Amino acid sequence: MLTRAITAWQSPPSRHPLQRVLALTFATLLAAPVSAMTLDERAELDLSDYRVTDSDASYVDLGSRIEVLRHTENSILLQERDQLANGPSCQQLLALEPITTRLRIPGYYPSPEAWELASEPLFQFEDSVSMLAGSYVATGDQYYAECLVSFLDRWAQHDALMDFHYDPIEPQAWFATESMIFAAGMAYSLVRPQIEAYTEERKRIEQWLNELAHRHVEIPGQEGNSCCNNHFYRRALYASVIGVLTEDNELFRFGVSAIHSALSDMTEEGAFPLEVARGRRATHYQNYALLYLITNMQVIARQGYPIFDLEVDGNDIHDAVDFALRIFKDPAALGDMAPLEQYTGFLKDNQYFSWMEIYQRRFPDARIEEFLQQVRPIYNRSAGGYITLYFMDEAAQQHIVINDEKRETQAFKGLEGSVDSSGQDASASD
Asked: Fewer CB near the last or first residue (10 Å), C or N of the chain?
């Protein structure tokens, strides 16, 4: 099973034994009060009915969306389309060196500047693949599809990203590669049906992505923490996407298992316990979990499964969405689960709300639409790319809101309090 630990990933004694014991004890104490589906319970889930049905089905209904973009008169979509029409230079992107050395990333919260510096090449990779895919969707120009294939094939030929440092105490490189994997998978899924002639390149890319996904997901993470929280949801996203692309039902079912696990863990209020246990960042992490769960559900739904209707013990994903919207507006809805003085700096960064664009397309909600109007257009460099371009209803909104203060601090009426000045993307370390 993919959820089992393997002895090859046992960490070397790189720290003083006492430091390691103290750190592990502290992590265990922090996680102890919160329960979640265990690895053994997850392994017992019967997901045999889930299998890949269409390896060319991306997370976007590409045929109908390209037709919409071709004829749209919506100013937001036109602006996104026109900007992407002047896409990147393929030669410049192909000059980027694949990451083949042992990847090691410092923690974000202890040293954000060092983390940001070390993460720049990773972000550059994610932006590159997302931009190439977006430029292809916006223009229909094969140049961008072919460039993306050449770019990924170069990384595949170098077995890039395969060598990353992992230690339970230092998991940052493992965290950081999560988003690189699903950024590559999601971007590639948008062009794959159009590159049938590239037989050898496709074979290498898909073999590389599959091996990379299996290598990464074989690390189960820590009980009560990365085994089962937002990082599990991030791993599930690339598992679903790459499972589809490579017709790997084992990976695909791992992706589906995250939805079952999240709904099983959910409280009656709709809270994800491991996320709201994060103190002043409870609101941020409830939203952060939805970012990957909803995106993953979109991938699964495109395979023909009514995953958005799934209920576990009476809980469904709509309960989690409703809870997030309530605590955005009024942190008192957290009750005694977390402090009421919540960190709201994430509201400055619209990438955290890419899930809303997907959800709104399927389940229109006036509260979500009000919020989205303040933060569009939404771009997430790894979890879907140009999400507004791909999902926004033409009739939803015609013009970008340029009131920066409102965009940053008042997307929901009633959201008050000081805003943390740190609005950087700490997704790889969350």
From this structure: N
